[in-house]
Amino acid sequence: MEFVFGEHRLDADRRELRQGGARIALEPQVFDVLLYLVRNRDRVVTKDDLLAAVWGGRIVSESTLASRINAARKAIGDSGEAQRLIRTVARKGIRFIGAAREEEAAVAAASRLSIIVLPFASQSNDPDQEYFADGITDDLTTDLARISDSFVIARSTAFTYKGQAIDVKQIGRDLGIRYVLEGSVRRTVDQVQVNVQLIDALSGAHVWAERFETDRRNLAAAQSEITARLTQTLNLELVKDVGRRIELEKPVDPDAQDFVMRGWAWYHRPRSAAATAEAQRAFEHALAIDPRSVEARVGLARALTVHLVGNFEARSLNALQGDSARAERLLLEAIESDPNHAAARSTMGLLRRVQNRLAEARIEFETAIALGSNDEFGRGQYAWTLLLLGEPEAAIAQGEKNLRVTPRDPTLWGTYLVLGWCRLLLNEAAPAIDMLIKSRAANPRPWVTHFGLAGALGLNGDIGGAKAAIAESMKLNPEVHSLAHFRAYRPWGNPQYWALFEKTGATGLRRAGFPDI
Predict the structure, then answer these.
(1) In the chain, how many H helices and how many E strands?
(2) Does 45 share its domain with 139?
(3) Which among 103, 136, 151 is the end of a domain?
């Protein structure tokens, strides 16, 4: 069902708000608030109604509720002052007063690819071989994202369905997508058999199914053939370089590619220093076997650069300098071989950010996003870069886009983290606390989450909570025990960013007794 008002269309099934042909990114709770108001436009909606419908009856602060309503207003071009569409009724509640009509949602045209690639099932007897099927899933997701006008659900959300009984129609409704691609992989010593099927999520009908057999050396060609068959079936036009990986990786030793797959499997586990170290070792093995591998270079550089950020453990200045130089060398070699490698570009963007070369980082991230439209890593790191450039509003827009393509992302803590810091620097303490608590609940290991939460709690007057968050931050990273050490440990940011931090986060931390030196 769609609700149409003015230039806006609110699609309840696909969970999309559009103005004209453009999609407007909304946080899930903001979408739910807006949808509930529009559906109940014949009456005044009370605070208790919203708490029951959107938060399941859970008590939330007045400021959190107000921030979601304000965000809903902003998304449809309204404001608390104008109240042109959403009106506050004193002491009673709020009501959607715009003229809206209901329409059956239009069936998505087959010319537009909205799809999820579900984790391929491994039919090998050895459970340790699952990484191989996961690698094929990752590659197909990346290839499909290069198709013009495609909307591909991110890998992190897709993998939340791994090992579950699948209701294709329900997935389509939950994620707002038209197609589901699923399959299985059977691997012997040298041979690989891939079964793949495309399903229409609206009807549940099979669109096509096929089996591909190849040896490990020609796996990239088989994967690209699957992508080509898919696009031919849906009458889609591939971007011109979709087959680039075949030529670039054709000479790569299959054992090296095997270690690359192992490396990415470790990298995509819940983020920790140990998992990143295992990923690095696997990529090192791949590069030792075949120094020509672009994928091994990119994977190794990603592991090194993520470690440089230092969210999970303290890192020394010597490590920062040595690993930075090595990661840069690897990425320059990879980009020289393949200038259109989205992961190489986004990893270079993160490296430039760590080097505080923020303008260059911005360019790399914008290039990466253009090359791979659902690159949640690139978009998330781009949000951090915009924040460090002193543009928290622009950063929020990127973070909210990530929420759209990764609605069930187990690493969504990273998106909540950057959104929390953005709200903090905008002096919006209550929404910042909400986002940072969500980040902490999803992954309590990054010290910077607790550090930002301490600043937001202190700014909001919760001194006891702020002190507890400071203690947890220092337990996870004792290196940051004063504001001066924080600036030395994370020196990134332009003067505009640091001025915002001084007015907000630093103020909240000082209120909780955190020292300057």
Answers:
(1) 23, 13
(2) no
(3) 103
For 176-239, the three-class secondary structure string (H helix, E strand, C coil) is CCCEEEEEEEEECCCEEEEEEEEEECCCCCEEEEEEEEEEHHHHHHHHHHHHHHHHHHCCCCCC
**Is the domain of 233 the same as that of 153?**
yes
CATH code, domain carrying 243: 3.40.50.11830
Q: Which two tokens stand for residue 27?
A: 């946080």
d(C-alpha 18, C-alpha 510), whole Å? 43
Q: How far apart are CA 211 and CA 372, in angstroms?
A: 27
| Secondary structure in 3-state letters for 371-422 | HCCCCHHHHHHHHHHHHHCCCHHHHHHHHHHHHHHCCCCCCCHHHHHHHHHH
Domain that holds residue 77: 2-103
- Residues 55-104 have pLDDT tens digits of 876 777 888 899 999 999 999 999 988 899 999 998 899 999 999 888 75
Residues 16 and 44 grouped into a single domain = yes
Surface-to-core class of residue 445, CB atoms within 10 Å of its CB (0-12 exposed, 13-18 middle, 19+ buried) = middle
Q: What angle do CA 209, 210, 212 make, to 5 degrees?
A: 155
What is the value of pTM for the model shown? 0.62
CA 319/CA 275 separation, integer angstroms: 18
